[in-house]
Amino acid sequence: MANEKETALSCPPVSKTGRLYWTQAVFFFWGNLILFSLVLKFSLYRNQGLNLWDLFWIDLSLAAGIWLLTALLIAKWKKGEKTTAFLAAMVNSSPDAFIGFSREGTITSWNKAAENLFGFTGEEMIGQTFLKYLGAIVPERLRKESRERFDHLWERGGRDAVRVETIRCHKDGRELPVSMTVTLIVDVDGAVIGQGGILRDVTEQKKAEKAYRHQEAQLRVSQKMDAIGRLAGGVAHDFNNLLVVMRCNSEFLLDKITKKDTGWNELTEIQEAAQRGSELTRQLLAFSNKQVSNPVALNLNDIAIRMNNMLHRLIYDHIEMYLFQEKDIKSIQADPTQIEQVILNLVINARDAMPNGGHLLLETQNVKVGPGESKGKVPEGNYVRLSVKDTGTGMSEEVQKHIFEPFFTTKGERGTGLGLATVYRIVREMGGHIIVQSELGVGTEFAIYFAASTATAAPAKAPLCLSLDTHGTEMVLVVEDDEPVRKILAKTLRGKGYRVLEASNGTEALQVAGAHAKPIDLLITDVMMPGMNGRDLAEKIVRERPHLKVLFISGYPHDVLSGNGGLPTGFLLLQKPFPAALLAQKIREILDAETVNPGKAG
């Protein structure tokens, strides 16, 4: 026997055969004593000449001795019976199932716990063969293994217990995970008289272990996210500076040539590579929670409608996209930018799962999860569900276990492995729940549950109408400690007609501004610089030149900026890397605004 549970070994109750043995022994002893007394009296009477009174005392003494010996035998018999009954009661009261076998493989013990665990009574099982045991509670796939273990224990004649974890069956067919301890039963003379197994139901233990492993896996993901976050924050600044140089230089050259000229394709590829690098940096920062979250009451329908045209441009022509929205959708508390990122990543993931075309459904719906409906996935409550469903290749169960892990991808070199990891991080940060259903060859559905809010969402804003003309003649002071970045910024602005002053740090910028008697219209400064930072520089220059407008630029994530004092309220921050066209557009917006420094940091 093997793979079974733990329990205490037991002895069966004293049988009727045992009682008969003791009764026969007592009568045999009595008979012999009486016979001996008759022979002794006859001998004494004949040889010693004793009278009847002497014989009476001899009979009395013999009777007393016989009664004393009988009482001792009965007391020992009852004590042994009590001990045996106590041991049997102890085994029968054990919370662990105990099953005993004779050397011939017959079931000799089946306690109350075994009845409760497996559903078979002692009357049904005691006296049955080992084969009956196998057929009753051992799954078919494990019977050969159990039989071999049973035989092996006899063969090796070991005294050490065998402990295993295995599966056993209830009478109703349910499979039960059990731990089992099997050992040989040895009598006082050292002879092996049977084999016993102690079994314990470990269903709850397995559930606890599974929950622990799940928490452990979540902790590992959290630690991995934190490590990547520190890495992303550390390299973002330098990496973004390099991308600014690449993007601005390529744009600068593309403005001077046409598609027919040599180098157009190469420059375009440089721009595309810089754009991919820019997206990777943003994904890293978003994934690692290095972006400031500004949750507000918002309407998912408004966001989906606003993104609809862009999403249609992202998907392939042979993919049909449908947008289904519940009319009176409830509000949620979330950061609009992060929600857009979630939708964007899920749609791109669905698109890539349908290389040969298919259908993509984006749906919003009010959902109420009632008691008993969640099955541990989504707690009961009112939610707004956002679901993205595709008819693509689907995922295996093994792939589904890893899809939210950072850098896990099935797209080869085309994937970064951060899209779904970012979705997971954002959803969890907002207190939402994400459920994945997928089947190979059928498709995948991501359903995200956001807690419904009673707050009223602000009406959707129309996109800003940007100026087409980004040229100007104003004086701009550019302060940047990274020389290649400073040079390309100044070159780009001069190409747009602006007059430019340059400085490599805050102290030099104050000297340049002090030496320039004419007005300076705009200060463009990096936020994090050696010595004086951009925030302190702006405050000092604006104090001397109240009408000076300011544009901050930075390659650091928002949390680093916040940890170093942040930015003054009302100033615009342009996050690196940015294309030259966007820089020129923002400069024009700030200079054309009626108020001084009207932008918002963020």
Distance between the termini: 69 Å
Share of helical residues: 40-55%
Secondary structure tally: strands: 17
Derived structural class: alpha/beta
Strand content: 15-25%
Compute the average pLDDT: 77
Task: Round the Cα radius of gyration to an integer and report it.
Answer: 44 Å
Net shape: elongated
Largest sheet: 7 strands, mixed
Unreliable stretches: 1-20, 461-467
Number of helices: 17
Q: What can you tell me about this protein's structure?
A:
It is a single chain. The chain is 47% helix and 20% strand. The chain is α/β, with parallel strands linked by helices. Helix 10 (336-352) packs antiparallel against helix 12 (419-429). The longest helix has 52 residues, at 203-254. It is elongated and about 155 Å long.
Task: Give a brief rundown of this model.
The protein is of the alpha/beta class and 602 residues long.
